[in-house]
Write a structure and sequence with these properties.
The complex is a heterodimer of chains A (about 220) and B (about 475).
Chain A lengths: L3 H15 L5 H11 L2 H32 L2 H21 L13 H15 L5 H7 L2 H4 L6 H5 L3 H32 L3 H5 L3 H19 L2
Helix pairs in contact in A: 1-6, 1-9, 2-3, 2-9, 3-5, 3-9, 4-11
Chain B lengths: L1 H7 L16 H4 L7 E7 L9 E6 L10 E6 L11 E2 L19 E5 L6 E5 L8 E6 L1 H8 L2 E8 L4 E7 L8 E5 L6 E4 L13 E4 L4 E4 L5 H4 L5 H5 L6 E6 L4 E7 L4 E9 L7 E9 L5 E9 L2 E10 L2 E2 L7 H4 L3 E2 L3 E6 L5 E6 L4 E6 L7 E7 L24 E3 L5 E5 L4 H7 L7 E7 L5 E10 L4 E7 L14
Antiparallel strand pairs in B: 1-2, 1-30, 2-3, 4-5, 5-6, 6-7, 8-9, 9-10, 10-11, 12-13, 13-14, 14-15, 16-17, 17-18, 18-19, 20-21, 22-23, 23-24, 24-25, 26-27, 27-28, 28-29
The chains are: A mainly alpha (about 220), B mainly beta (about 475).
């Protein structure tokens, strides 16, 4: 069994987990506000659920679309959407203008879902699923795109999405706990590099990669 | 528009967080000392020349310390510069709308009379300012339905501005928002304004999603000068309003009593978990006193009470302007106040009596007066130590406190038409600096006395931020 798609899914999850803008910072601020470590854990759960929800919606949509278009067109469309979103974010980066500092579990789940969708978190998994298609289908298919565009592939992608989400949750949770209990918020000033810039470029690259590898 | 698409709206993004952003107020107190002050300059007659933005050297180790380094004239006459603010500040770190890689770089400078808003770039050379965008009054009228923009605060999700009134000069005044990437007017902020009609200042308790606004008067009530009949009729503002910052809805109005006329500057605690703040009242109809009020939330409900009263000082009618001669006293006219970033010290300017008061507000409802620094004043005309022989007019008006809380800057002009009523001999402008000791003391720096004949100096903004332009989402 080919391991790289799994590694890619875990790495992408960890990358989202590390980005302060994707949730852990929100969890820390709620912990600080309520002076409670439990608040951080609760917030992290909401954030992980929102993130996983956004990813699942995109994967489901992609597989639905895959039912109706040929593999070639599917790959092309995914590539264009990825590169397009990356370019748009690069040129006109925006953050959602929603909620505030007092949020319920549901608010936070929605916020995280919105944030992940705006970042294209689910879209970024498409190349991994499409290109590495054979890895989790259990079928050794010479053309991964065939399995990617067949609907049963959706169920096969569930473990992948779960692994990705778990990785995001674990990494973000550890960072949140470290910042809250040990490092302190001053770390933001030194270490919060422009992850969005890297992410936008990654989206574009992933799009290009899909174009190149298109069979 | 090409400029705004690729120059401003893409916001020159940084790779690391802007070094002037701090997650908490306590961390911001460790910021390096400011080297430059940006100061609004108001053309004395609003007819013969345009207003300007000054850059003043505030670095004690610089050979030009206490001198004007540059002046940037605005293109039009009659803007009436007043307050202004930064495009971005520490709120960029707020977790729900993070954008920490924009720069604190542009000054958002509204014309209080013209309703024109200039966006002024402080980079690459902080002493050579450049106007990079002009929002015309019509844009503000059309997109926000407001006019006379006043306070500017960089919020977590946009740049918020208050406005004194409607385009026709009546009410209501309110708040509108600019996009913090391209500075376009996004529109009116309020979804439900409830009973609120008058506007002036606003600020927030970010940790509680609460916005607070105060009341002066509509443009018609103030632009021609202080109207004695409006004042004696108790028609200027005497309330503060609490809003749901998230839902943009009015939630509560607190009335200070109609004898307390003109409720102006709002200074909430910088710690976002706290729910108290101070607001100044210019004048009481009962005895011409000024007062400072404390608002706070107790068992879920907002309340307000007077915690400081500054009495009027008896004066010979011959030394008073016509407006005050009948009273035989000079009112303190508290026009500005500032709270240090540690929420411990409150600075209150008395523009009428010519005094700066410093209070220890460690226990917010029991302020202790720790120092009084006299300068200028309607009657006293106290000189500055640099030139003890020269009486000064105007009084301490706008205050700005450095982030570390050690330096306090003051200027002496209030508002063009009102300046003439209280200082009929014409404000001769000055900007001074006081050193604030950890022991509660306050002393003028004899090396720092900035003067100019061309403009009247108004609000001061400090390089990297100051106590009234930054707010924080994380508790200290």
């Amino acid at each position: 069994m080919n391991a790289w798609p799994w590694i890619a899914l875990v790495a992408l999850g960890a990358w989202h987990g590390l980005n302060p803008g994707m949730g852990w910072l929100f969890a820390v601020s709620l912990g600080l506000q309520n002076r409670s470590r439990a608040a951080i854990f609760q917030a992290m759960c909401a954030i992980a659920i929102g993130h996983a929800l956004s990813v699942f919606v995109i994967i489901a949509l992609a597989y639905l679309v895959g039912q109706y278009v040929s593999a070639t067109w599917f790959g092309l469309a995914a590539a264009v959407v990825l590169a397009g979103l990356g370019s748009w974010r690069l040129l006109r980066g925006r953050h959602p203008r929603w909620v505030g500092m007092r949020v319920s579990f549901r608010d936070l789940t929605c916020w995280s879902c919105l944030m992940a969708s705006a970042h294209g978190a689910g879209l970024m998994l498409l190349p991994v699923f499409v290109i590495g298609g054979g890895a989790w289908c259990g079928v050794s298919s010479p053309s991964p795109l065939k399995s990617a565009t067949s609907f049963p592939g959706f169920y096969n992608s569930i473990p992948g999405v779960c692994v990705h989400s778990l990785s995001q949750f674990v990494v973000a949770g550890i960072v949140a706990w470290l910042v809250y209990d040990i490092i302190g918020l001053a770390i933001l000033r030194k270490s919060w590099f422009n992850a969005d810039l890297v992410w936008s470029c990654s989206l574009i690259l992933a799009g290009l990669l899909m174009l190149t590898l298109r069979v | 528009m090409a400029n705004s698409t690729f120059g401003l709206s893409t916001n020159p993004l940084r790779w690391t967080v802007d070094p002037t952003f701090y997650p908490t107020a306590r961390l911001a107190m460790e910021a390096p000392a400011e080297r430059y002050a940006y100061v609004a300059g108001l053309a004395p007659d609003q007819k013969s020349r345009s207003d300007a933005l000054y850059v003043v050297d505030v670095d004690p180790s610089s050979p030009k310390y206490g001198q004007i380094l540059s002046r940037t004239d605005l293109p039009d006459i009659g803007d009436e510069l007043h307050h202004f603010g930064w495009n971005a500040c520490s709120t960029a770190l707020c977790p729900y709308a993070p954008h920490p890689h924009v720069e604190r770089r542009y000054l958002i400078v509204p014309g209080l009379r013209s309703s024109r808003i200039h966006v002024i770039d402080t980079k690459p050379d902080p002493t050579k300012l450049q106007i990079v965008k002009t929002i015309e009054p019509e844009d503000v009228f059309k997109r926000a339905g407001y006019s006379r923009p006043h306070t500017v605060h960089c919020g977590p999700d946009g740049i918020y501005l208050s406005a004194l009134g409607a385009p026709d000069g009546g009410g209501p005044g309110g708040i509108f928002v600019l996009d913090h990437y391209d500075f376009n007017v996004l529109g009116r902020w309020e979804v439900d304004r409830g009973p609120q009609e008058l506007a002036y200042d606003f600020f927030w308790h970010l940790g509680h999603d609460v916005l607070i606004s105060s009341e002066w008067g509509t443009p018609r009530m103030i632009e021609g000068g202080l109207q004695p009949e409006t004042l004696l009729g108790a028609k200027y503002g005497h309330q503060i309003h609490f809003w749901d910052l998230r839902k943009r809805k009015h939630s509560k109005a607190l009335d200070l009593g109609s004898e307390h006329q003109m409720v102006l500057e709002l200074r909430p605690s910088h710690d976002p978990t706290k729910t108290f703040g101070f607001v100044g009242v210019v004048i009481s109809l009962k005895d011409l006193s000024a007062s400072i009020w404390l608002w706070r939330r107790r068992s879920g409900d907002w309340e307000i009470k007077k915690v400081i009263e500054i009495p009027a000082q008896p004066a010979d009618a011959a030394n008073l302007p016509p407006l005050l001669q009948g009273f035989g006293a000079v009112p303190p006219l508290v026009s500005d106040l500032h709270l240090s970033l540690d929420d411990r010290w409150l600075y209150v300017s008395c523009w009428g009596t010519g005094e700066l008061h410093r209070y220890d507000v460690s226990i917010p409802d029991q302020p202790k007066l720790s120092a009084v620094l006299p300068i200028g004043g309607i009657v006293k005309r106290t000189p500055h130590p640099q030139n003890p022989a020269e009486p000064l007019n105007g009084g301490p008006q706008m205050v700005e406190v450095s982030r570390d809380g050690k330096r306090v800057y003051l200027t002496n002009s209030l508002y063009q038409s009102w300046d003439e009523q209280f200082y009929p001999d014409g404000i001769r402008t000055w900007m001074v600096k006081a050193d604030a000791g950890a022991d509660g003391s306050l002393h003028f720096d004899p090396r720092f006395l900035v003067k100019t004949e061309d403009h009247r100096l108004h609000q001061v903004r400090l390089e990297g931020g100051d106590t009234s332009s930054d707010s924080f989402c994380f508790p200290s």
